[in-house]
Amino acid sequence: MCVESGGEESSPRLVDRWGRVAADLRLSVTDRCNLRCSYCLPEDADTWIPRQDLLTPAELGRLCQVALSLGIRKVRLTGGEPLLRPDLTEIIHQIRQAFTQSGLPADIALTTNAIGLASRLDSLVNAGLGRINISLDTLDPDRYFALAKRDRFPEVAAVLEKLPGSGLEPIKLNSVILDQQSLEEIPDLVRFALRRGFQWRAIEFMPIGPLGDSAVTRPHASDILARLQECFSLTPIETDPAAPARRWNVAAGSDHPAGIIGVIASESAPFCATCDRTRLSADGKVYSCLFSLSFVDLLTPLRQGASNDKLAQLWLAAQAAKPAGHREIAGAGRRTYSLSQIGG
Ligand code: SAM
Question: Given strand 107-112, what is the order of strands in its sheet?
Answer without folding.
Answer: 234-237, 245-250, 259-264, 199-204, 172-177, 131-135, 107-112, 74-78, 24-28, 277-280, 285-287, 296-297
